[in-house]
Specification:
CATH topology: Purple Acid Phosphatase, chain A, domain 2
Shape: globular
Number of helices: 7
Strand order of the largest sheet: 1-2-7-8-9-10-12-11-13
Bound molecules: 2-acetamido-2-deoxy-beta-D-glucopyranose
Structural class: alpha/beta
Number of strands: 16
Helix content: 10-25%
Number of domains: 1
Distance between the termini: 40 Å
Radius of gyration: 18 Å
Order of helices and strands: EEEHEHEHHEEEHEHHEEEEEEE
CATH architecture: 4-Layer Sandwich
CATH class: Alpha Beta
Strand content: 25-35%
Largest sheet: 9 strands, mixed
CATH superfamily: Metallo-dependent phosphatases
């Protein structure tokens, strides 16, 4: 079930209301960097997601992007959509809404196809937009299009072409996105504020930190008490705590091909967990507690963390 609301014309981010369970709790899985027609253990990860999804009775699935390798979708009829998505995540528990963002590999294909409403008719679970908000009451989740922030994709190269339709002029697009993100975060009254993007902010993985996001997005997240920043891009599972706020940086990019052994600085300040194999993340939230768990392809719990929030009562 998906209810679409448009807020005022000044806010670009579309809002979707996704009610939590009757007791106010919510659970979902997060997967990133996955679409490889089942190869590189994508299918094994999918099977474990199915059984964890069942166990937690999940409400939806979040994708942190790089949904279709190597070059996104060619068009709305690209069979990769079926071979890498519909035919892979077949478990009953995964027949829920999927909320996805685009990764840099998706931008190498026909981005309009991946964002298209026609795709949503091909598989009703699919929802991918550039930047949008899913409000569950318990948590408000802000999906942010991070690829256009990264300078190197705009440099002329003979290796890759990117589909920037809808993004140019670039600086105008980025300025508006940041302004809309900031005002939406300021207005949020949810217990948990969660931001999802494809690119890393903090990471010890292959790509490491994304300088442009550290400079332009991180200050906005910290100033507005964001609890979790969740990304993919580095093909690993990872948890890093902030040294300047209570924000946690979580990477779920283990949906298929993993970068075994490809990391730097295991002594990074705040590093709680790093796994360079495949897997996914689950979140269980209620208004005062969040439980975050990383799972491998055998269903083993690799790392788990509990966050809690004081409930303040207003004294008049
Ligand atoms: C699949 O996962 C197993 C267990 O983690 C690992 O040993 C193997 O290398 C993986 N295969 C690929 C192709 O990544
Ligand atoms: C916090 O960590 C980041 C990333 O490791 C580092 O660049 C920064 O200097 C640290 N800031 C403080 C105040 O320690
Ligand atoms: C998290 O809380 C649950 C109970 O809600 C507890 O069973 C579990 O041990 C806790 N995990 C950690 C890592 O603190």
């Amino acid at each position: 079930m998906l209810v679409v609301f448009y807020v005022s014309a000044s806010a670009e981010f579309r809002r979707f209301e996704h009610p939590p369970k009757p007791d106010g709790s919510l659970s979902f899985l997060v997967i990133g960097d996955w679409g490889r027609r089942g190869t590189y253990n994508q299918s094994e990860v999918a099977v474990q997601m199915g059984s964890m999804g069942e166990k937690l009775s999940i409400d939806f699935v979040v994708s942190t992007g790089d949904n279709f390798y190597e070059n996104g979708l060619r068009g709305i009829h690209d069979p990769a959509f079926l071979y890498s998505f519909t035919d892979i995540y077949t478990a009953k528990s995964l027949q829920k809404q999927w909320y996805a963002v685009l990764g840099n590999h998706d931008y190498r294909g026909n981005t309009k196809a991946q964002l298209s409403t026609i795709l949503r008719r091909t598989d009703r679970r699919w929802l991918c937009l550039r930047s949008y908000i899913v409000n569950t009451g318990t948590a408000e989740i802000f999906f942010v299009d991070t690829t256009p922030f990264v300078d190197k994709y705009f440099e002329k190269t003979k290796h890759h072409k990117y589909d920037w339709r809808g993004v140019l002029p670039r600086e105008k697009y980025l300025t508006k996105l940041l302004k809309d993100l900031e005002s939406a975060l300021k207005l949020s009254v949810a217990s948990w504020k969660i931001v999802i993007g494809h690119h890393t902010i903090r990471s010890i993985g292959h790509h490491g930190e994304t300088r442009e996001l550290v400079t332009r997005i991180l200050p906005i997240l910290e100033a507005n008490d964001v609890d979790l920043y969740i990304n993919g891009h580095d093909h690993c599972l990872q948890h890093i705590s902030s040294n300047t706020s209570s924000m946690q940086f979580l990477t779920s990019g283990g949906g298929s091909k993993a970068w075994k052994g490809d990391y730097h600085d295991l002594n990074q300040e705040g590093l709680k967990f790093y796994y360079d194999g495949q897997g996914f993340m689950s979140l269980q939230l209620n208004p005062t507690n969040a439980k975050i768990v990383f799972h491998d392809i055998a269903g083993k719990v690799l790392h788990s963390t509990n966050l809690s929030k004081q409930r303040y009562s207003v004294v008049m």
